From TrEMBL:
Pfam families: ATP-grasp_4 (PF13535), LAL_C2 (PF18603). GO terms for molecular function: ATP binding; ligase activity; metal ion binding. Residues 118-318 form the ATP-grasp domain. Keywords: ATP-binding, Ligase, Nucleotide-binding. This is Phosphoribosylglycinamide synthetase.
Length: 425
């Protein structure tokens, strides 16, 4: 058992009301005996109504920073953590104001803005695709003449593969552009003031790296293989399995690539989640975020003697030396169950059969019955998660695939009220 002594300290979590990640971090903080203050992205009136101790409007950064500073005058913090991408810049700027360990605000911005990320990575020597910036008000046919096919259209700030679309031809590019444009305008972006990214498609398979940065030095916590092909036209995440089946030499090259990317963005402290493609030319950086893996995926990771990823991140934020902490042995995996089509989720079948598959440790259906489902590239969620542990990555992957085959989701397209048949009178 690893012997850590953690005195009672106060920490600020910044989160949105819809985050998946709060439960794991709150439980980890409780195990460590930390006092937690939750800063939630809510208008002031709703914060008062729901008795939220620290209601913040993440879109009003200056006002939110001042609110945090005022609160800290009587309730000082040891650290500020953004639990997802939405408040990473706010966390960095508030940490600067309070003199806490932090990434620079510029680095936090670069980790959210895909165009700025690409520019800094390219300048810093991290292998990444050729890219161009275009504007929503421009002519898509003219844009298509300036790119190489296949290519990928990407919004600058949406996460979770939202709005990411591959195009192989000019007609596909024009169609993808209009789809991305509709999505961004629906999200509140201005047509005349919004740009997006188009980059060359990189063939190969994907991996994801979880790490911790301390004074700019990267410690790799684990490397996930993504065994399902992610070739488009959309790029929904599915299965993650660790440990990686890649050679030690390739894993070292991936770690070096991520370290170069983090350095080029100026990321120096805290968790990083990096996505890469790997082919015969080696690893290519796709994205790097100044946070840990999203959703409920972190629950498959354990370190030392049963320490979860969130506890590790909190210990690191409090300044503990974690250089010797390694992931527990054995293989683990998770599947983010994709939404196959739009509609209303009416029922879910086969959960007991899926749970009975050897090596399956849990099934978590997060989509709510009778609610609207929206698949990628417009959607921002999954049907749920399948978790597995076993002796080998191959056994874990096969268990997840078998469990998924047992699950059946009844999704009905919503019929507009005016088209529904009226009862006979």
């Amino acid at each position: 058992m690893m012997d850590f002594e953690v005195e009672c300290k106060r920490i600020l979590f910044l989160m949105t009301p819809a985050t998946y990640r709060s439960g794991a971090f709150l439980n980890a903080a409780q195990r460590l005996g930390l006092e937690v203050v939750v800063g939630i992205d809510l208008p002031e009136t709703l914060s008062d109504y729901w008795h939220v101790p620290l209601g913040l409007d993440f879109s009003q950064v200056e006002a939110s920073i001042q609110t945090i500073i005022d609160f800290a005058q009587t309730h000082p913090f040891m650290a500020i953590l953004s639990l997802d991408d939405s408040a990473s810049e706010l966390a960095a700027r508030a940490s600067v104001a309070l003199g806490l360990a932090h990434n620079s605000p510029h680095a936090s911005e670069a980790a959210r803005d895909k165009l700025l990320m690409r520019r800094l990575m390219s300048a810093g020597g991290a292998p990444c695709p050729i890219f161009r910036e275009f504007w929503l008000h421009a002519d898509p046919v003219e844009m298509a003449r300036q790119v190489s096919f296949p290519c990928v259209l990407k919004p600058r700030r949406l996460s979770g593969s939202r709005g990411v679309i591959r195009a192989d031809t000019v007609p596909e590019f024009v169609s993808a552009f209009h789809r991305l444009k509709r999505l961004l305008i629906n999200e509140g972006y201005s047509e005349n003031e919004t740009s997006f990214l188009v980059e060359d498609f990189i063939p190969g398979f994907e991996v994801a790296l979880e790490g911790l940065l301390t004074h700019g030095e990267l410690k790799v916590l684990t490397l996930f293989d993504k065994p399902d092909p992610l070739d488009g036209p959309f790029f929904e995440e599915t299965i993650y399995v660790t440990p990686s089946r890649l050679s030690g030499e390739m894993q070292q090259a991936i770690a070096q690539c991520v370290a170069t990317a983090a350095r080029s963005l100026g990321l120096r402290e805290g968790p990083v989640h990096a996505e890469l493609r790997v082919n015969d030319q080696g690893p290519w950086m796709l994205e790097i975020a100044g946070r840990s893996i999203g959703g409920l995926c972190s629950t498959v990771l354990e370190f030392g003697s049963g320490i979860c990823l969130e506890e590790l991140i909190l210990r690191h934020a409090l300044g503990e030396d974690l250089a010797s902490v390694e992931r527990d042995g054995g293989a683990a995996g998770v599947m983010m169950i994709p939404i196959p089509k739009a509609g209303i989720l009416r029922s879910v079948h086969g959960i007991e059969e899926a749970q009975a598959v050897p090596f399956i440790t849990g099934i978590e259906i997060t989509a709510r019955l009778h609610n609207q489902l929206v698949p990628l590239p417009e959607g921002a969620s999954y049907l749920g998660f399948i978790f597995a542990r076993g002796e080998t990555p191959e056994a874990v992957e096969e268990a997840i695939r078998q469990a998924h085959q047992h699950l059946h989701f009844e999704i009905r397209r919503e019929i507009p009220l005016l088209n529904r048949s009226l009862p006979a009178v």
